[in-house]
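Subject: for your reference before the review

Hello V.,

The reviewers asked for a structural picture of the protein, and I figured it would be easier to keep everything in one thread rather than splitting it across files. Below is the amino acid sequence we used in the manuscript, unchanged from the supplementary table.
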Amino acid sequence: MTTGVRPVQGGGAGNGLGLVVGTVPATPLQFSVGLAPGQYAQLDDVVVTQRAMPGPEHGVVRIAGVVTNVEATHEGARFPSDVFLIEQGALPAEICEVAEVTVTRVEPEMYVPPLPGAVVTRAVGEARDSALYFDEMGSSKVPVGFGRDGQPVFVNFEFIDGTRGAHVSISGVSGIATKTSFAMFLLHSITTCGVLAGEAHNTKALVFSVKGEDLLFLDYANSRLTSAQAARYAALGLPAAPFGNVRVFAPPRRGDPSGTPDVHARDRAVSPFYWTLAEFCEQELLPFAFVDTEDERAQYTMLIAQVAARLRRDVRPVGGEGAIKIAGVDPASDKILRTFDDLVRLLEAELGDESTRGTWVAGSTGTGSVNALLRRLRSAVAPLGAVVRGDLAHKGERSISTSRAQMTVVDLHNLPDRAQRFVVGVTLRTEFARKERQGTARPLMFVMLDELNKYAPREGDSPIKQILLDLAERGRSLGVILIGAQQTASEVERRILANCAIRVAGRLDAAEAQRPEYGYLPPAQRQRATLAKPGTMFIAQPDIPVPLAIDFPFPAWATRPSEKGEWAGHDEGPSRPADPFATIPGAADDPPPF
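And here is what came back from the structure prediction:
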């Protein structure tokens, strides 16, 4: 008994992987390969065959593809129990392995099927580059990891930077799919592989950190990085080094009048962020206090813009801490507003009184709509009180800006969900407006946002969702590139996903994998995605008809305090002493990202 396929009369596989089988129809887009004795094929192997065409004007057509399924059967068996008779030698049968190949490239473009009996070989070197279109990417190749054959895999930067497409969507189960780790590796690769050329230094990245302090050490070397792991970076042509120019913004600690940033394990290049009451009114930030997706037909939503406009028009800054007075209110009170709670109390008094309500909102506004507005505003006091205030004496940098560093990290993990939405919405609006004023797409600005399904859900509407839609649809022309990560792509606004040229999936939930949003994955890859190990991703890009499975290197930057090695940053801006009493429960015991 032999392993493989029976030799084809008049020839064999020779040194090839196998032969195109004739029992399964071969088409210009798909064919099957019977594996030769002693050969094997695994999913994602790249193979190539050819067909000689009649006449000298056509020559030879090369057909390349990727293995998308492999089956092993007994030829000659009729019943499942026959396997025991075959094993005992009582029943003659042959083991046959057949690999299904999905065509990726045909050169020249004559879409004809390979003929049964044609020799199929593994594609290596230039043949592999041609099969996966790497040869046409030229200087736009961005390494993203290694294929199943251990060779580098690239994405075309022209589908990221806006030349032919933009934006990246990364999906996967929380804590297993390593979405954030891959997003940071992609940013590292883009900024160090050479595709940005002279623009690399001025290219910016805005990263929102929502899960602990894991992203606060991007400029520290990873002490757990081994020489073998560093060699993987070298194989991709990348430095095994952390990010070199990082600035962190964190909300101020509660109860600290000096505005000390609420972080514990980082003591360099970190600043507090908050908005003064004067800025809240002058910049009309009130709509971002209502960030929950609501029915746009709700009556109270029509009042928000009117109240915001009145605040902008009549605010009077007081002192140097951002406190305010509102012109036109009861002059007898003459109260200075120093906290967000003070502002809400004033609005409750003014809008709750029918004699003064008309100065804030126009028309015959119903009491029910006003009460709905005030209820939601009152519920925002506790979450937003830490980031909207006029009572801090902090005199240093406190406005989130990407101008001071190549990588700007905004730490949100200590804020309630509602405050996180407020910060994301206001920051994105500010940076998007800055890029519009700049008037040129270059240098690029990347925005890495986790939990995209929370900020741009499929149902409902909100100011943040509108900004993200604008970013997805117009960001390409302005040089603003979204790298969005989410557990469930099925819950993200369709128009945002439709504008993402690069789609990535890590470990998926079995039910989620069957959603139409993952239609770019062949059936076998959908099933594999439910079993994928941390560090394995499936990448779909317009250049290549089949998504490619890759694994990417272990982070060269620290991902938790226990991994902090040598600091690679710059001594810019204020530093503060480490908090000797702060503890990070379980930090040293957290599982690694892979």
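For the response letter, the relevant points are probably these. The two ends are 42 Å apart (CA to CA). Confidence is low (pLDDT under 50) at residues 1-14, 573-594.

Happy to draft the paragraph if you're swamped.

O.
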